[in-house]
Amino acid sequence: MRLYLATGNRHKLGEVTAILAASGITAEVLPPSAVGGMPEVVEDTGTFVGNATKKARALAAKLPAGSWAVADDSGVCVDALDGDPGVESAYYAGHPSNDAANNAKLLAALRGVPEERRGAAFHCCIVAVNTDGSVVSFEGRCPGRVLETPRGTGGFGYDPLFRPDGCSVSYAELDDSVKNTISHRARALAKFVAWLRDGCM
User: How many domains are contained in the chain?
Assistant: First the structure.
């Protein structure tokens, strides 16, 4: 089985590949470069599932018959900000995407907000699109809190600012093997893997 990942983000590519490999699923996971690169996609649907579907469909149009394109769209939704940055997480501080600028803007938006009101959740939507037009989607969520200062050097995006519930450290301080079992992306991919194990591909 071949799965083509519809992302140009090397960190996401690495995470998804590692999580699928650890699941025991026998699949060849390929980047968009295997088919000439990821088409440019404007992520303007306003929802995680809409953006992920749009990306997966764009890549599926370039694939050999019978192949699946798998896309992820994710972000952090902060309670005190009415769910922002949400689907705009990657470009919260503007284009092009810049992790440091995004983190700085989030900290500024939450300046003075006490710890008990810094609740947040990372959301992830995984969408798989086949060249025959079939579409399936799976969602994962990891609740936690936004820290007042960055902690850790691992991960990417908002990882240094996000402490998942039940943990005393940030995403960026977690070992990859741990993060890849509890994260929003891991939870969405677990549902995808269960679907694969049911023989749906």
Answer: 1
